[in-house]
Design goal:
GO terms for molecular function: DNA-directed DNA polymerase activity. The protein is of the alpha/beta class. Helix content is 51%, strand content 8%.
Length: 320
Amino acid sequence: MNLDTFVGQKEIVFALKKALKNPFHAYIFEGEKGFGKKLLARVFSKHILCENKSSCGVCKSCRLFEASSHPDFHIIKRQEDKKEISVESIREIIKDLSRGPIFSDKKVFIIEEGEELSISAQNALLKTLEEPPTYALFIITCNNIERLLPTVLSRSIVLSFKRYSASEIAKILEQNGLEPKDYIVKLCKGNPKIALDFYNKEVQNKRDYIFDKLLCYDGASFDLIKEFESDFEKLKNDFEFLFKNIIYFLRDALFYKKTKSIELITNTDKLEKIIEFSNKHTISHIYKLLQDFMILEKYPDANVISDNVLDMIFLKLSGG
C-alpha cells in the first residue's frame, strides 16, 4: 500500500503528499480508534524513507522497511507490563537520534497511542521537538489528544482523522477480500476497524449470543437476571461492543414496532429476531429499556468494572 492506494482521509493524504520532499519534524495523527492512524503512519514513513520518496518497493530502503528491519525506522509503544510509555523509552529515542540516519536522509519514529506517554516522557520528548535534528521525524498516533501536553501539541502538526464514508468502508472491505454487506457498512458508523471486526467469527458469535439473550428476556425473570450477571462478567472487556449491539437492536425493534416497516432497520441480517422481539413487548417497554441502556452505556469503563454498575444493570433489566 502507498499514499495513492490508501482509502479515505483525502485531505490528510493530500497534505502528506505535499510534505514528502520537506516534511515537518513532528505530526500528530489523532482520532477515534480504528480510523487507520497507525496504518497511514507506516505508509507515510515508507514514502519518507524510500530513496525515490515514492514507496517504490524496489530500493534498498523499501526492501528493508518491508522486511521490518530498517535501521532508520522505529515504533515506540507501551510495554504490556507497564501502565505508561516511560521516560526511559524516550531517552532511548534521543540516544538513537544522536547517531544520525544510516540508509536514508531521515530517521522516523512512530509513537503509538501517544496518550499513554507519561508526563515525564512528554517533557523529555518536548526538548527534542523544540530543537530537533534536521533528519528527525516523529509521528504520534493518538486516540485521546486531550492527554497530550499543550506544549507538545504546539510543536507538532495535528492531523485529525474523520469518519469514513459508506463507499470508502466498502472499498476497504473489498481490499481485504471481503464482500461489503449493507448492515455492516451501516453498523460500523464510518469506522473501518469495526467493519472488519464484524467478519470475525468470534465477533459474530458474541453478537448472536447477545441477541438470543434479549429474545429470552421477559422483563421479570430473576433467573434470567442471574444469567445476565455471569454474561456481563464474561463480556466485561467488550462492554462498548455489548452496549452498542443491545442499543442498535432495541432501536430496530422500536422502529419496527412503531412503523411495521423494515426500511429503518440497521440489523438487516437479523430481521426475524427483531420482529420477534418487537412482537413480544409494548412500545413503552422497548422505549424504556432503550433509554436505560443508553444511560448505562456511559457508565462502564473497559478497564474498571464496578459492582455498582453491574447492580444498576440488573435493576434496570428487572424493571426496577
